[in-house]
Write a structure and sequence with these properties.
six-stranded antiparallel sheet; 4% helix; DUF3238; 1 helix; 110 residues; DUF3238 domain-containing protein; globular
Length: 110
């Protein structure tokens, strides 16, 4: 083994929840994290806002992310979004700015 390191947990965070009502919440999840073993490595980035409305039993997912690596978002154990860089032909070069993918998904909660 050559080296082991872990990205700081502070590189990923959820901004303060915004309660829209007693049964609806909005969370903004962010990541800005580079490989700690590679000096000057580009960061993996995403900003995703999740809104869950239990009154209507719906969700919305909005935001942006890099084209690499793969991304999946789950709500209540069900995958509501996925991005596979193998399908889009993207690789490590997609870590450089800007974030290539816009996310705008909505649906019913199971």
């Amino acid at each position: 083994m050559i080296a082991i390191d872990t990205a700081p947990q502070t590189d990923a965070w959820i901004e303060s929840p915004n309660w829209i009502s007693d049964r609806s919440i909005e969370l903004t999840c962010k990541l800005d994290s580079a490989n700690p073993l590679v000096s000057g490595a580009p960061s993996i980035n995403y900003t995703l806002k999740v809104t869950i409305d239990r009154n209507n039993n719906t969700y919305t997912l909005e935001g942006t992310h890099d084209g690499f690596p793969a991304y999946e978002v789950y709500i209540n154990g069900s995958r509501v979004y996925e991005h596979d860089p193998l399908e889009t032909g993207e690789g490590i070069g997609s870590l450089f700015p800007p974030e290539e993918h816009d996310v705008d998904e909505s649906g019913n909660l199971l």
